[in-house]
Write a structure and sequence with these properties.
Elements lengths: L1 H13 L3 E5 L3 E8 H12 L4 H13 L3 E3 L11 E4 L21 H19 E3 L5 E3 L1 H6 L1 H11 L11 H17 L5
Antiparallel strand pairs: 1-2, 2-4, 3-4, 5-6
């Protein structure tokens, strides 16, 4: 799975995503076609076997990394695809499906607080005495940011079932603090 995620990230960072009109009144943004994928594999990885490319796209689809928007289309070249991370109006922790083992909610949420603090030290900038901002170009390149995004996806596995009320409160406060840290000055 990790190899597929890495490959998907490489494709997404280098392929030209586009907007495709569907019908008269709707369009799909940040998409590509099977033909775009074929051309990318031929150019970037020198893979010319279309069956192999289709198999990779199928595996990404099965893992929830890539979605087919017109599954009824029989021809791979004409199928429209979108990466999970480009799904519109999705919660940040649902942009990538986490398939790993469930972690302890208290440790996971505490780790998130630590990770966001680490990230903010790296990308925050003073705009004035009362305002702070984020260096977006630094954020996009930050390894810590990409680790944080993956770690946020792990929230999908949290089960509060066996936690006491105090432990639940601690988890929610940690999650709230992660959100709040982006708005408050150090």
């Amino acid at each position: 799975m990790k190899r597929l995620e890495d490959l998907a990230e490489r494709i997404r960072n280098s392929i030209k995503l586009k907007t495709i009109r569907k019908g008269y009144f709707s369009e799909e943004e940040n998409v590509m076609t099977g033909l775009d994928l074929i051309n990318w594999f031929k150019t970037e990885l020198k893979i010319t076997n279309c069956e192999e490319i289709e198999k990779i796209a199928f595996d990404m689809n099965e893992q929830g990394i890539l979605h087919s928007l017109n599954a009824e289309e029989k021809e791979f070249q004409n199928t429209i695809y979108r990466f999970q991370v480009d799904e519109p109006e999705k919660a940040a922790n649902m942009l990538q499906i986490y398939k790993g083992p469930a972690k302890d909610p208290i440790h996971l949420t505490a780790d998130l607080v630590g990770k966001v603090n680490e990230l903010l030290k790296e990308v925050r900038v003073e705009l004035s005495s009362s305002e702070v901002g984020i260096k977006t170009e630094k954020l996009k390149k930050s390894k810590v940011y990409h680790e944080l995004k993956k770690q946020i996806c792990e929230l999908q596995t949290i089960s509060f079932k066996n936690l006491s009320n105090n432990e639940k409160t601690a988890c929610f406060l940690n999650i709230y603090q992660v959100k709040l840290r982006f708005y408050l000055k150090d």
